[in-house]
UniProtKB/TrEMBL annotation:
Residues 1-19 form the signal peptide. It is an enzyme of class 3 (hydrolase). GO terms for cellular component: lysosome; membrane. Its EC number is 3.2.1.46. Keywords: Lipid degradation, Lipid metabolism, Signal, Sphingolipid metabolism. One of its GO terms (molecular function) is galactosylceramidase activity. Residues 619-782 form the Glycosyl hydrolase family 59 C-terminal lectin domain. This is galactosylceramidase. One of its GO terms (biological process) is galactosylceramide catabolic process. Belongs to the glycosyl hydrolase 59 family.
Length: 985
């Protein structure tokens, strides 16, 4: 009997399933200590199952601004961008085989907003606004077999309005179709899959899925001028369009579409793939022969009433939370040991999710949300990606070690989609040789040491690979045997391993390396002991000399601070400009874009290549796009007005967008604003934004409307209000230097504020209400006498940071508002941390209650005793050290009392423009006088002497000294004099 096809009855299918052990039990459970025995039997390789058991590999989801900055990388650092495309999508064994695009609606449903391809029913679709469509086009240049899918979550208001009436099917179809055809016209590829239903529904819209499938199949209109297709293109487009497959239903907390397919013949015929999110499990309701018992396994194996197999996807899952580089220094293992590359929400956790989701629900495709984090840190769900690309001006891209872990699934098999003639040779998953006993359903935990393995095999039975994950602190021995396989004359097996480095090794010394070469024993078993906190791939393929398999991931490169000349294009630290944008982009050249279904790239003008999206802006809500003024000049407009605003957005905020560098500290931001909408408008400018997704998440901001009413805000709370003359436009400015913030309108200061608990650094935000509002001539400038920015951020778990005493260093289940989701907490007197840095000062970042009291030494010399910290929100400085000579330093902070939470450290730049008044320092030196050293204890004199020497050196001239440094040196000197302790008689 051929598996997976024919008109078998439900009883016959169930009998077959029980015999095969697929919908009944997994491979027998393994004891805690016995070797894990895996038999790869060629009879279990289902070469005729072309949908459910073919291993598609990995995909990525592009949505909600996660890919936003990639278009800037392409324009500013094209070599780095195309390298990223090759790393993720290229080669003989691509890591990523699928780009899934969640169509935007200009509203925020996660980490930000993606532009709507059609903001009104009459507007021509523009897929180039959404970076996901272009990313897919570029990826197809190196991976012609790449699949592209689309779905929706929130729809534009013109669709939403009709949908709410129960009559919006035509509008929904129009939005989908015109977007699909626009991508086809611009990039040459046809979308492969569409999910007509809403993302993360709990009640699949079965009737609309059927309606959509019918409409798609019977559509003959491809000549409408709106589509922009030539007669020749129309014929090809029609054929490709009718081949689009249907996905249903991207559920999250429910699993209803599986049983629905098994009980609805029409729905079963309409749907090609099923997917659901954030769980590894199948549904287990009812008796084994019921449609609610293992429905997804039945769909994948084809052992169902219809005798046909369907694709089953893990259609949205997470990557590794935080950076593996840092989390290997955690203390979450037994006795405070590190969990290496493992632990909950680690690289090994993601590997176990892939294994367990197959073992328990036969899913053969895992889609990361996101695989690439190309949006600014501080938004919801930050740092859960495989690749971090957040500084397009620098070209810095961080490739996480989790990529090596996931390559264990893709580099030792032929992955992808089988062709219609079943000749592509895509490897099959082997259920009988796959198992997972780790605990958990989403954040899985392998610390119980249970076996976790997945087997992939060549459909011709010539080779196989078994991936084993050991996310525990003890070894696990595997004995693997091949039966009924055609392994050839040389049955040697290679073992490829990835784990954290041993002491004294380089960080990546044990990432994806050939660990052993095995031969079967007399009984035919290959035996190998898998080390703790590691992943291995056992493969009969010969990859020992394969250059691509041994290829290391690219180096990250430096995270250069955004500091440009007046064009905003060229890096320049010598002038007074940090960044500028007139939105004309004459300084930008053409951009290469994937075209002709990946067969070539073409050169397109900068703005046209990106759907008129502005440079470096990451939208949180709103339609931010470059348009033309009446005089023809380019202006940044926010287009989401009263006629477009009422959508089903998850994170409901007024329109706002973010630009700049999180390391900016003391600067003046200014912008021209205008109000072309006769119904009204509001424009806001904010500074020092570190986290959050609303306009009010800028620490300090000003808002104004055409009537001239302005308000100065601190985190959305009104501090000052006033009125200037009504006008069609204004120039707004906010200057933040230290604790003092000044707001100006048209060059005149209208408000000043001295913040008793200042927020010290962050990006610029632009905002509006739901009217069309214009922004132009954005400029961010340095402030004379003040350090403009920090130059580097060092995470609390960076390997250069040394801890002594009792610390808790945690990454699992970490908060997205902490850098890289990690923190180190000290609560015992005497606990110390030593940090190397280069600059003129150091900020200690972390959410704290202000209870910590510190002793501070720099370069081995005492600098402060009993220094107080301040209560701070996350990503803010609880302790600030300034006034050091520019250069390399080492600071040691020792806890005297209280508790301190360390998130990160930022080193301050010595690039200070303009003169600095050192009068406060001279006054402090005069005030302390010349005490006699013999009168004071050695410890207290050491602090005073070192502090006085530093003050004298600074007065005589010190590069990089700024206003805060002068004040801190004077305060430290006074405190050191007051802290002198007389010797006892």
């Amino acid at each position: 009997m051929k598996r997976g096809f024919g008109g078998a009855s439900l009883a016959a299918a169930t009998t077959m399933a029980l015999a095969a052990g697929l919908t009944a039990a997994a491979p027998a459970a393994h004891s805690a200590d016995d070797p894990v025995q895996v038999v790869v039997d060629g009879h279990d390789i289902r070469a005729d199952n072309v949908n459910g058991l073919t291993y598609k590999g990995l995909g990525l989801l592009s949505c909600n601004s996660t890919s936003n900055l990639l278009m800037d990388y392409k324009a500013e650092h094209p070599k780095r961008y195309w390298q990223l495309v090759r790393v993720l999508f290229g080669g003989r064994n691509p890591l990523i085989n699928h780009v899934k695009i969640e169509m935007g609606s200009d509203t925020n449903t996660s980490t930000g907003s993606d532009p709507a391809t059609m903001r009104t029913a009459d507007e021509l679709a523009d897929a180039s606004r959404s970076p996901g469509f272009q990313l897919a086009a570029d990826a197809r240049t190196v991976n012609p077999g790449l699949k592209v899918s689309i779905l929706r979550w929130v729809m534009p208001q013109w669709v939403q309005t009709e949908w709410n009436k129960g009559t919006g099917t035509d509008e929904m179809y129009k939005w989908y179709k015109e977007t699909i055809l626009d991508a086809y016209e611009k990039y040459g590829y046809m979308v492969d899959y569409v999910d007509p239903d809403t993302n993360e529904t709990t009640k699949p819209d079965v009737s609309f899925v059927k309606w959509y499938k019918n409409a798609l199949t019977n559509d003959t209109d491809f000549a409408d001028p709106r589509y922009g297709l030539t007669p020749r293109q129309q014929q090809a487009a029609a054929k490709a369009y009718h081949g689009i497959k249907i996905v249903a239903s991207d559920e999250n907390t429910t699993k209803n579409i599986g049983p629905a397919l098994l009980t609805d013949t029409e729905l079963f015929g309409a749907v090609d793939a099923v997917g659901y999110h954030y769980t590894t499990e199948d549904r287990l309701d009812g008796t084994p022969d019921s449609p609610t018992y293992r429905p997804y396994t039945k769909l994948a194996t084809g052992e169902n009433t219809y005798g046909q197999d369907k694709e089953v996807w893990y259609s949205e899952g997470v990557g590794s939370f935080g950076w593996t580089d840092f989390r290997v220094h955690n203390t979450e293992g037994p006795g405070g040991a590190s969990t290496g590359i493992g632990g909950v929400q680690s690289a090994l956790d993601v590997a176990n999710r892939s294994v367990k989701s197959y073992a328990n629900s036969k899913r053969t495709h895992y889609i990361f949300q996101p695989a690439i984090g190309a949006f600014y840190e501080g938004a919801q769900y930050s740092h859960k990606e495989l690749v971090s690309a957040r500084d397009p001006w620098s070209g810095n891209i961080h490739y996480d070690a989790a990529l090596y872990v996931m390559q264990h699934f893709t580099q030792f098999a032929r992955t992808g989609w089988e062709n219609s003639t079943n000749t592509a040779g895509i490897w099959r998953t082997v259920p009988e040789a796959s198992y997972s006993g780790v605990s958990g359903t989403e954040n899985v935990d392998g610390s119980n040491g249970a076996p976790s393995y997945l087997t992939l095999a060549d459909p011709k039975k010539r080779d196989f690979s078994t991936i084993a994950v050991n996310d525990s602190d003890r070894t696990r021995t595997y004995r693997i045997k091949a039966e009924n396989m055609d392994l050839g004359d040389d049955p040697a097996m290679e073992v490829w391993e990835t784990r954290a480095a041993d002491p004294g090794q380089a960080y990546d010394a044990d990432f994806k390396h050939l660990a052993a070469q095995l031969r079967p024993d007399d009984e035919g078993y290959y035996t190998y002991t898998v080390k703790p906190r590691s992943i291995v791939t056992f493969t009969t393929l010969d990859r020992s000399h394969d250059k691509a398999t041994r290829q290391r991931l690219p180096e990250s490169g430096a995270r250069t601070v955004l500091d440009t000349d007046a064009t905003g294009k060229r890096h320049d630290t010598r002038d007074g400009v940090l960044y500028a944008d007139d939105f004309g982009y004459e300084e930008e050249g053409p951009v290469r874009v994937g075209s002709d279904d990946g067969r070539r790239t073409v050169s397109r003008p900068y703005l046209a290549s990106r759907g008129n999206q502005p440079r470096y802006l990451v939208d949180q809500t709103g339609a931010w796009e470059v348009g033309k003024e009446a005089d023809g000049d380019n202006v940044l407009y926010q287009y989401l007005d009263q006629s477009m605003k009422d959508t089903g957005a998850w994170n409901r905020n007024t329109p706002n967008t973010t630009v700049g560098d999180f390391r900016w500290e003391n600067y003046r931001a200014s912008v021209d604003v205008s109000f072309p909408d006769p119904q009204g408008g509001l424009a806001t400018l904010g500074v020092r934004q570190q986290k959050g997704m609303a306009a009010t998440d800028a620490a300090y901001g000003v808002g104004i409307g055409p009537a001239g009413n302005w308000t100065f805000y601190r985190y959305g709370t009104a501090i000052r209000t006033g009125t200037v003359a009504p006008a069609d436009g204004y120039r707004l400015a906010v200057e933040a230097k230290g604790a003092r913030v000044t707001v100006s309108v048209d060059g005149r200061a209208v408000a000043e504020y001295q913040d008793p608990t200042p927020v010290t650094g962050g990006r610029v935000k632009l905002g509006s209400d739901f009217h069309k509002v214009g922004f132009d001539n954005l400029k961010v400038e340095k402030v004379a006498g003040w350090t403009p920015y920090a130059t580097a951020l060092t995470d609390n778990m960076d390997g250069s940071v040394v801890y002594d005493g009792t610390w808790s260093r945690n990454a699992s289940l970490g908060d997205a508002m902490n850098w890289y989701r990690s923190t180190s907490t000290g609560a015992g007197a005497g606990a110390s941390v030593t940090v190397p840095f280069t600059g003129t000062g150091l900020d200690v970042i972390g959410g704290n209650d202000g209870s910590a009291v510190l002793d501070v030494t720099v370069d081995g010399r005492p600098l402060a005793r009993s220094a107080r910290t301040v209560a701070t929100d996350k990503r803010q400085a609880t302790y600030r050290l300034r006034g050091l000579p520019e250069g390399r330093h080492t600071a040691t902070l020792t806890l005297r009392s209280g508790k301190i939470v360390l998130d990160a450290f930022t080193a301050l730049s010595g690039d200070v423009d303009g003169p600095v008044d050192t009068t406060p320092l001279r006054t402090a030196l005069d005030a302390v006088g010349s005490p006699d050293r013999s009168d004071w204890t050695a410890d207290s004199w050491a602090v005073f002497s070192a502090t006085r020497s530093a003050a004298r050196a600074a007065v005589d001239g010190q590069r990089g000294l700024d206003v805060i440094g002068v004040d801190q040196l004077a305060s430290r000197l006074t405190a050191a004099r007051d802290g002198l302790v007389r010797k006892e008689a």
